[in-house]
Write a structure and sequence with these properties.
It is a multi-pass membrane protein. InterPro entries: CaH_exchang, NaCa_Exmemb, NCX_ion-bd_dom_sf, YccF. The longest helix is centred in the last third of the chain and has 36 residues. With 741 residues, the protein is mainly α. Strands 2-1-15 form a three-stranded antiparallel sheet. It contains 25 helices and 16 strands. α9 packs antiparallel against α10 and α18 packs across α23. The protein has two domains: 155 residues, no CATH class; 390 residues, A middle domain of Talin 1 (Up-down Bundle). The radius of gyration is 31 Å and the shape is elongated.
């Protein structure tokens, strides 16, 4: 748990990366100088690691320090070899403030959601030049912009430039026809050439006469989506004072020309923003609409820039060199990734279309099911961001409660709505789909998530190491949880009665071979004596023991054996980095977003289960395959992205823990909650799985533990896990549909 510190103080936390190497605790020195020595050694480690407070675009710096001989000798002579040896076995994590330090510490705690994105605003000087360029306004003239003939600029010409230029020419003709709007017609004519190819050109605002400078007002607004602070703007009320508003040219412009161009630029802005890599074009259109088109024509000057030319007079309003930037996938709005921002309107469209068009007059069930499933992805992101924000700003108890309550809300919402619908319709297929989704989540998080992270991380790093002791705790809980979940299934296989739907004599001989279909173990023989007297009590017992084991695991890793993760938050800070925490979401805001996202998640899950029935009945694909792929892995996409980002930073421990924690929560929290739900609301859900689910889950857990045995891995081992996962998917794809579907 992160310790409290001054708001402006830079925090550093150290995590043990190689637990097999013995480490001398700070208090083993016996004197009052122990803490002081540890602090000085921490500063020495920071100097070794060259952590001058800059993390680039990673948010935390994670690597194994190596001590040069010239630097390690004075430290060891002054403070002893043991203290400096403790530095060698530490991994350094650097955070900008106390809130980020809490978030990083929570990432290493068992049972807490692992979150990569920042929950606070990063200091501008700590960002890389690439990221700074993403958030800069299009009003900076470079000394040498390079060639403007790029693929992105040509794409702009093909998508927007040609028809936008023609529209300006048309508006210019209309303005010339009105005679009064001739000045604006000339402006549109000049802008037609500019927007055909705006690269390497600049739009400047000509200085106003001194008699009119009093009309300029400073506007301190900022555009949260398309830029930073907005410079001074010409206010319409000043037009009244200076005579512009009453002149016929301005009236013709505001009535005939400006609305048409605003609609065109709005279309360009929305389209470019949704394409993400063309966000500079969206900024260009937004700035042209809000600045250029509202200026009097005589105050707008368009200049062609040369390679080394820097205009000396007039304010630069627009200056663009590139239409596309591939790094805009890092762009965030108020801490929210641009992909989550773009998918948020999809949630509104899904809810309106799903509940307004309830009789499928506009679209079919397949489209509504797809939209509802896609809407779960941004909602999962917002839920994860809210949980991380609340946990980072709260104490350990509040964070643990929030993670335990809302950590599995995405999956549970869908499972419960599906079971309710299956119970109302008397259709056992929904219960089988839920079991397939549970198994798919377990198998995917054990094989696919860590395997994919190993492959992608192994492309950048030849060999990756992780904390084998912390991974061993999760592996032990996985063995326990899988054994407990499938214990009723194994019990039914031993004591159940095999019943087949129909059998045919192949050899026409009464003693010959019979071919039987739809065979299953019947637990309801003799009025359900076996199930109600033996299987059901076993299910309830397992549902009580699994959450208890989960709580014991929390107590073990977070209270009595915290040294397994060895998270320390020190008070050392680097000079020049005194930053207070500016959180993106406050605790109350995060709580409101968490509740709203959960409510929308429930609505989307209800729509998904409402329109999945035609897909299950009419599809030629096995219901097993639909459950283990689409329904299981789509809600986990934000977690997969987080795992990949951690792996690219050579922090495979967190990538592995993401998959293990989800798998453990499926067995120890989600399944017992579903069993508890069936007590109060009877459904067709029983904790008896098919043989395919049992074999796939157990084989996946055994293989995962074998791969993670030595605490190191590479891309080849990750490829093995991914290939085994795809083989299991092929088995589910060709498997016949479960009984009852």
């Amino acid at each position: 748990m992160a310790a409290e510190a001054e708001p402006g103080r830079r925090r550093r936390c150290c995590a043990q990366d190689t637990p097999d190497v013995p480490k001398v605790p700070p208090d083993s020195r016996g004197d009052s100088d122990g803490p002081r020595r540890g602090s000085l050694c921490d500063r020495h480690c920071a100097a070794i690691n060259n952590v001058q407070g800059d993390l680039g675009d990673l948010g935390c710096h994670l690597h194994r320090p190596r001590v040069p001989p010239a630097m390690s000798t004075p430290c060891c002579q002054q403070y002893s070899e043991e203290v400096c040896e403790s530095c060698l076995v530490k991994t350094t994590l650097t955070a900008e403030n106390a809130v980020e330090a809490n978030k990083l510490s929570n990432n290493y705690k068992f049972g807490f959601k692992k979150w990569k994105s920042h929950v606070t605003a990063r200091p501008w000087e700590d960002r890389s030049e690439i990221v700074k360029e993403l958030y800069s306004d299009l009003n900076v003239i470079r000394g040498s912009g390079g060639s403007t003939l790029t693929c992105g600029n040509v794409l702009y010409l093909l998508l927007f430039g040609w028809w936008l230029s023609l529209l300006y020419i048309l508006v210019a003709a209309i303005m010339f026809v009105t005679v009064f709007g001739a000045p604006y017609g000339q402006l549109c004519w000049d802008l037609a050439g500019y927007f055909l190819w705006p690269f390497g050109k600049a739009i400047q605002k000509v200085e106003v006469p001194k008699s009119h400078r009093a009309c300029e007002v400073s506007v301190g607004e900022s555009s949260a989506l398309l830029g930073g602070a907005t410079p001074r703007r010409w206010h319409p009320r000043c037009w009244v004072a200076s005579g512009y508003w009453h002149c016929a040219s301005t009236t013709a412009w505001l009535c005939l020309g400006y609305p048409v161009l605003v609609l065109a630029h709005g279309l360009v802005c929305v389209t470019a923003w949704l394409l993400i890599v063309l966000i500079p074009v969206a900024k260009l259109s937004a700035r042209a609409t809000s600045r250029v088109l509202l200026l009097p024509p005589e105050r707008v000057l368009i200049r062609h820039l040369r390679m080394s030319e820097v205009p000396l007079e007039g304010e630069v309003i627009l200056c663009c060199y590139r239409a596309a930037n591939p790094y805009y996938y890092k762009y965030a709005v108020d801490g929210i990734n641009v992909f989550a921002v773009n998918l948020l309107p999809l949630v509104l469209v899904t809810l309106v279309l799903g509940y307004v068009d309830s009789h499928n007059h506009l679209t079919g069930s397949a489209i509504k099911f797809t939209l509802a499933l896609l809407s779960i992805m941004p909602l999962s992101y917002y839920i994860g961001m809210a949980i991380a924000s609340i946990s980072a700003q709260s104490n350990f108890a509040v964070g643990a409660v929030v993670n335990a309550t809302f950590g599995s809300i995405t999956e549970l919402t869908f499972y419960i709505t599906a079971l309710i619908k299956g119970s109302r319709e008397g259709n056992r297929c929904y219960a089988e789909v839920v079991k397939s989704a549970l198994t798919g989540t377990l198998v995917g998080c054990v094989l696919f998530v860590p395997g994919l992270c190993m492959v992608i991380g192994g492309i950048r790093h030849q060999e990756q190491r992780f904390n084998s002791r912390s991974a061993g705790v999760s592996s032990a809980l996985l063995f326990l949880s899988v054994g407990g979940v499938f214990a009723p299934t194994l019990f039914s296989k031993v004591y159940g009665k095999l019943v087949c739907g129909e059998c045919h004599n192949v050899t026409q001989n009464p003693l010959g071979h019979y071919l039987c279909h739809n065979c299953h173990f019947d637990l309801m023989d003799h009025n359900g004596t076996l199930y109600y007297s033996h299987v059901q009590p076993l299910v309830y017992t397992v549902s009580i023991l699994l959450p208890a084991a989960y709580l014991i695991g929390l107590f073990f890793t977070l209270k009595t054996h915290t040294h397994i993760y060895d998270i320390h938050i020190s008070d050392c800070h680097m000079p020049g980095h005194h930053h207070s925490a500016v959180v993106h979401w406050s605790r109350w805001r995060a709580l409101v977003i968490l509740l709203l996202s959960t409510l929308c998640m429930s609505a989307c899950a209800d729509l998904a289960t409402e329109h999945i029935s035609p897909i299950l009945t009419n599809s030629t694909i096995s219901q097993y395959f639909i459950g283990v792929t689409v329904l299981a892995m789509v809600p986990e996409l934000p977690e997969i992205v987080n795992g990949i980002q951690f792996a690219l930073q050579n922090n495979l421990s967190l990538s592995i823990e993401i998959g293990n924690c989800i798998a453990v929560q499926v067995c120890m929290l989600q399944i017992p909650i579903l069993v508890l739900f069936t007590i109060f609301y009877p459904t067709n859900f029983t904790l008896v799985f098919s043989d395919l689910h049992v074999y796939a889950s157990m084989f996946s857990v055994v293989l995962m533990n074998y791969i993670f045995m030595d605490g190191k891995c590479d891309y080849f081992q990750g490829t093995v896990l991914v290939m085994v996962y795809f083989i299991l998917l092929a088995v589910y794809f060709f498997a016949p549909s479960p009984s009852g579907c």
